[in-house]
Design goal:
The protein has two domains: about 90 residues, OB fold (Dihydrolipoamide Acetyltransferase, E2P), CATH 2.40.50.730; about 140 residues, OB fold (Dihydrolipoamide Acetyltransferase, E2P) (Beta Barrel). The relative contact order is 0.17. Helix content is about 25%, strand content about 30%. Helix 4 crosses helix 5. The strands form four sheets. A five-stranded mixed β-barrel has the order 1-4-5-7-6. A four-stranded mixed β-sheet has the order 9-10-14-15. A three-stranded antiparallel β-sheet has the order 11-12-13, covered by helices on one side. The protein is globular. By secondary structure, the protein is an alpha+beta fold. It contains five helices and 15 strands.
């Protein structure tokens, strides 16, 4: 077992799991800048003292995840022992974040290269810089989780007696997003791709906007943030990760698990 300091940089929108209830893929960077994935973690079932934020350092005891073939995947040995530490701020145009992340990692620009590396199990997490982001795509999605999964999860809660001190009706699964959000982009060879954005922040942004302004306005506001702001005014990089299901065997196993969007600077200092 190894105790490590990890800067949380990725937290994906939760999906349902009959075994783990809700799962959010978490990934980040060690102190030397190398990637690590912490999986599986049922984030909303953690005690509040263990619920980390993005760009917060945490201290955890990890072990390689033998049930996940992706090379960066580790398990947290005991989620009760997650220790929350300081956060890394955005001072001086995200200088500390850029130094750790961009200064210690290869910035990939070719989609075919990273697909080949993933399919040979060399990596499953990358920092990617598109040559051009063409559009931000919004598509309708099924607005409800499959009922069989919901029923199985609620049944497992009952069996585990997790609701002795509260009513089962008080527990709320994370709502399913009614839309799929994606970037359409070109790589350095002009190859065009569309990848879904699965980070927690885009989901929370949508729900906050829908609550305050309604569904139609919400998708417009998400587009304004992720395209008009991130694409047009920021130095946008994409955190890409493979899914466990398709790693090593899909034509393109990657999805967008997060964005890295520091402000534009003419001569960024990484050191």
């Amino acid at each position: 077992m190894a105790k490590e300091r990890i800067l949380i940089a990725v937290k994906t929108y939760p999906t349902l799991s009959e075994k783990y209830k809700e799962l959010a893929c978490t990934a980040g960077f060690r102190e030397d800048g190398s990637w690590i994935r912490l999986y599986p973690i049922p984030f909303r079932l953690l005690d509040h003292e263990q619920r980390y934020k993005k760009y917060q350092w945490v201290e955890v005891e990890t072990t390689p995840n033998r049930g996940d073939p992706r090379p960066e995947s580790h398990r947290v040995r005991n989620t009760d022992n997650i220790k929350l530490l300081e956060t890394m701020g955005t001072e001086r145009a995200w200088e500390a974040r850029r130094r750790l992340i961009l200064g210690n990692n290869k910035i990939y620009t070719n989609l075919g290269e990273i697909i080949d590396l993933a399919n040979s199990n060399k990596l499953s997490l990358v920092v990617f810089k598109p040559a051009e982001i063409i559009d931000f795509v919004v598509e309708d999605a099924d607005p409800e989780w499959p009922q069989y999964k919901v029923n199985a999860i609620l049944d497992s809660f009952k069996q585990a007696n997790l609701f002795e001190d509260q009513n089962l009706e008080d527990f709320k699964l994370m709502p399913k997003l009614p839309y799929k959000f994606s970037y359409r982009f070109k790589d350095d060879e002009g190859k065009q791709s569309t990848l879904m954005i699965e980070d927690w922040e885009i989901g929370q942004l949508y729900w906050n906007c829908e609550k305050n302004q309604g569904r139609e306005k919400a998708t417009q506001k998400v587009r304004e943030k992720y395209f008009d702001d991130f694409v047009k005014t920021k130095d946008l990089h994409l955190f890409l990760g493979t899914t466990r299901e398709w790693h090593g065997r899909a034509k393109n196993p990657f999805v967008i698990i997060g964005t890295f969007h520091p402000p534009q600077v003419r001569q960024p200092s990484l050191f």
